[in-house]
């Protein structure tokens, strides 16, 4: 997916990409777990595997030491997936509950998740799913 800075941000915030997730993708730290969740969703939608990798907590279950393999896996997923929308259902403390609407080869692959975020070196990072 290609996007202009003046397009609506894929995260569903209602803001233009340049005033929303773009600044986080350019290196500004997310101030809240919700902001990071939105930026990560947008990174998936825009095929920005490096951002997903950089914002995954190194102690979390999704972190992979083999970064080349991890990047290939992320890119395969993003290329095969159409990201149709994000809805934040709740955000409190270090958790964010969201609904992601996505399609893989026209098959609905949408899901709801409660995600846990933790600080690492002064930045919020995605840790994993709260079960």
Can you describe this structure?
It is a single chain. The protein has 131 residues and is of the alpha+beta class. It has a single domain, classed as Nuclear Transport Factor 2, Chain: A. The protein contains four helices and five strands; from the N terminus they run ααααβββββ. The chain has helices spanning 21-25, 33-45, 49-54, 67-80; strands at residues 81-92, 95-104, 107-108, 111-120, 123-129. Strands 1, 2, 3, 4 and 5 form a five-stranded antiparallel beta sheet that branches. A hairpin with a 2-residue loop joins strand 2 (95-104) and strand 3. The longest helix is centred in the middle third of the chain and has 14 residues, at 67-80. The protein is globular. It starts with 20 loop residues before the first helix and ends with a strand.
Report the sheet-strand fraction. 25-35%
Tally of strands: 5
Mean pLDDT across all residues, rounded?
Answer: 96
CATH class membership: Alpha Beta
Shape: globular
Helix/strand/pairing class, anyone? alpha+beta
Low-confidence stretches: none
Any idea what the radius of gyration is?
A: 14 Å
| Major sheet description | 5 strands, antiparallel
Provide the helix percentage. Answer: 25-40%
CATH topology (level 3) name: Nuclear Transport Factor 2, Chain: A
Secondary-structure element order, as H and E? HHHHEEEEE
- Which second-level CATH architecture applies? Roll
Number of helices: 4
Count the domains: 1
> Ends: how far apart?
32 Å
């Amino acid at each position: 997916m290609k996007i202009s800075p003046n397009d609506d941000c894929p995260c569903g915030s209602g803001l233009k990409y340049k005033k929303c997730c773009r600044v986080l993708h350019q290196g500004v730290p997310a101030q809240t777990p919700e902001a990071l969740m939105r930026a990560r969703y947008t990174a998936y939608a825009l095929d920005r595997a490096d951002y997903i990798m950089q914002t995954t907590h190194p102690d979390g279950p999704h972190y992979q030491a083999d970064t080349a393999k991890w990047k290939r896996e992320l890119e395969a997923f993003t290329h095969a997936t159409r990201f149709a929308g994000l809805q934040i259902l709740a955000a409190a403390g270090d958790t964010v509950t969201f609904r992601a609407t996505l399609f893989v080869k026209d098959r609905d692959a949408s899901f709801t998740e409660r995600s846990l975020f933790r600080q690492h070196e002064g930045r919020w990072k995605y840790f994993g799913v709260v079960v």
